[in-house]
Amino acid sequence: MNNKIKKILIVRPDKIGDLVLILPAILSLQKNLPTLQISLLVSSYAKDLTDFMENIDKIIIDNQDIKKLTTEIKKYQFDAVISLFSTFHIARVLKKTKIPIRIAPATKIWQFYYNHRIPQRRSLSLKPEYEYNTDLISYFVTAFFKTDLQQKSPPYLKLEQKTKQQVLSQFYQNYPELENKKIIFVHPGSGGSAQNLNLEQYAKIIISLIKKGYVPIISPGVSVTEQENALILQNIIKNKKIKIYQPEKKHSSLKDFIKLLSIVDVFIAGSTGPLHISAAFNKKTIAFYPNRQSATAIRWQTINAKNNRLYFSPPQSCDDMTKIDIDKIIPQIISFIKQ
């Protein structure tokens, strides 16, 4: 055991889906080094997710101010830092903090701000993003603690049973027709972060599910654009059975939405934050990815168990999501949900 390393900062100030994909790495680190104090540097946008992460010492928000952020980090006197995906801004800050051990991918010119650089070619999409993250944690554990990283298996997010039961009870009060049925959410929004099916394609999927006796719920997300898309989708379908999820509180938060995702059975969406959160709870996910090298189903694979994920993409090297033949994939979707 390396007694000199007591506090580490893990850095991923990015979008919600990106933060979810560090969970296998974080939980594996906690499993291997239970006495290590782990802190996170995240974006303000994704901070709410950290409330569902256990045994995190400090949460630092990237305020984009180099001087203030450097001062904030320095006061905690970290022994090591791992930047899971480095930017020039973050590299400069971490160099100024003078943390003794600074680990990052050796992929950009600013890699030289770090004193431990691990070659990675993420743009080639040779493996999932969460594995690239875990590789950096594995290097740290092997290099400084002389042991192999024992990885944690899903689920990577859990809700207290009492809280989960409260969320479920409230949901059934609002949707009594779904008691004893599978809770299926269809999320047509992407938050602008990824290409997605169009609303007509989602409408086809929903109509097919209704014909099979399911009652899918349209998930509006938390942004105005996503909520507008949900309304348009509902109007396209024109079926009284289809409903848009209406949160209990007028101004629902991301935290409320995360709690809701803990009770779903199946989540259908493009490669977006809510999809990855659902997967972190080890729910069944049906995902749609473009076939572009930096955005493939392999690179942005969800972190649920293999038998809980199903995905579709257009033909090879094609970004056109309309090339996904919905009629052709419906039988696979129905079969997957039935399992």
| Large-scale geometry | globular
Separate helix tally: 11
Helical percent range?
25-40%
The CATH topology of the largest domain is given as Rossmann fold
Element-by-element helix/strand order: EHHEEHEHEEHHEHEHEHEHEEH
> Which CATH class of the largest domain is shown?
Alpha Beta
pLDDT under 50 segments (min length 5)? none
User: What is the count of distinct domains?
Assistant: 2
Extended strand count: 12
SSE inventory with pairings:
Layout: E1 7-11, H1 16-20, H2 23-32, E2 37-42, E3 59-61, H3 66-74, E4 80-83, H4 88-97, E5 101-105, E6 116-118, H5 129-145, H6 161-174, E7 184-187, H7 199-211, E8 217-218, H8 224-237, E9 243-244, H9 254-261, E10 266-270, H10 273-280, E11 284-288, E12 309-312, H11 326-338
Parallel strand pairs: 1-2, 1-4, 2-3, 4-5, 5-6, 7-8, 7-10, 8-9, 10-11, 11-12
Helix pairs in contact: 2-5, 3-4, 7-8, 7-11
Supply the key terms.
Rossmann fold; single chain; 2 domains; globular; 6-stranded parallel beta sheet; 12 strands; alpha/beta; 11 helices
Describe what you observe in this structure.
This protein has two domains: 7-145, Glycogen Phosphorylase B (Rossmann fold), CATH 3.40.50.2000; 161-338, Rossmann fold (3-Layer(aba) Sandwich), CATH 3.40.50.2000. Helix content is 36%, strand content 14%. It has helices at 16-20, 23-32, 66-74, 88-97, 129-145, 161-174, 199-211, 224-237, 254-261, 273-280, 326-338; strands at residues 7-11, 37-42, 59-61, 80-83, 101-105, 116-118, 184-187, 217-218, 243-244, 266-270, 284-288, 309-312. The strands form two sheets. A six-stranded parallel beta sheet has the order 3-2-1-4-5-6, with helices on both faces. Strands 9-8-7-10-11-12 form a six-stranded parallel beta sheet, with helices on both faces. α2 runs parallel beside α5 (129-145). The chain is globular. The mean pLDDT is 93.
